[in-house]
Amino acid sequence: MKAASGWIHQLSRTLKTCRLYDAGNPTVVRFRDDLCAALERLVAEFGPVTYRFVSDDVLLGEHSLMPARSRDDNLAFAFFRDGVRSVTFSPGVESRELFALVDGLLAVTGQNLDEDDLVTLLWEANLRHIDVDYV
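-> structure tokens emitted (135 positions)
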């Protein structure tokens, strides 16, 4: 659980970094690459990992991993608002797939909001190793 919690916090930090700097910035590239490497290690060690989303928290099973401290600091809300109830990462997950998730989250949470919702963006990305459960 500690590794899964660490990874979801790393995802949050990566999203914040991506919002601050241009996509080609070396810091952004490093954060994204480190996020991929950490996810590959996580699923290689533990097998499929499923994060569940409620309006104000990210859960692993019934364990709270990232309760929202404020409206602006609520990773779970973008998933929950767009109908995503869980995301399962499976061994073999590719950087392209994870980057599609990161880019989708950036698109639905940034200032230049995309017309599409997160479910549509993830569905269009054809994710083979990331299972999205939505309502």
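The chain has a mean pLDDT of 94.
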